[in-house]
Amino acid sequence: MKDDNVKNNKEDSYNVYDKITFIGLLALLLIFSVNAIRLGNILNLDYSGNVNPAVGYTVNSGNNAGSNAIKDNVDVIPKGIPAIYGKDLGVSFDDVNVKNPGKADETIRKLGILDVNLNLQGKELERYINIASKISCEYCCGAESIIFSNGQPACGCAHSYAMRGLAKYLLEKHDKEYSDDQILEEMGKWKTLFFPGSISAKAVILKEKGVELNYINLASNKYRGIEQGATNGNMVGGC
Question: Is 114 in the same domain as 200?
């Protein structure tokens, strides 16, 4: 009888232990699932594990937050190697991508160092001031433009360094091949890569209003702030 009682007590202990273990495993599974969903939202992942493209953001139609939301797909992300200067600098639009932050930072630094190393004078400086004063890094540092009126940097974020560096390089090495607007367009392409969600949301609104979707309209100060109220996406590269 005594042995039977001991045996029953052991079985009861095992049952309790099994139940505790099972409950613990369920709790861990639940925590893992919640964290996975949160991580997916942070990284803008879909359920297949792929990074969602930086297009198709939901925006509010009209000025009121309560307006009906609409969805549209506007692919404004530049792709491939830039003509003329891409091979010279060893940069590609495809390298600035949320999927590969290391490569994106490397590319941004490669353009940014040009801002430090190049010093424009005379007519080149005049052109530079005219061009760079028309674009800002409003999603990062909020300055009116990436330079002051004398051409000195007005924003210290990595994105601004990259845009200024590109402008200086094109003015010094390819000034006859690019007009001021064409240089501003090139700067706008890189800014679109740096802020794909915000610029894509802006593209939807500009399209609604019948505005031509070029990179001056998308990324310069010409229509700055028109996308307020839209859902912004990820930033690529650090401020």
Answer: yes
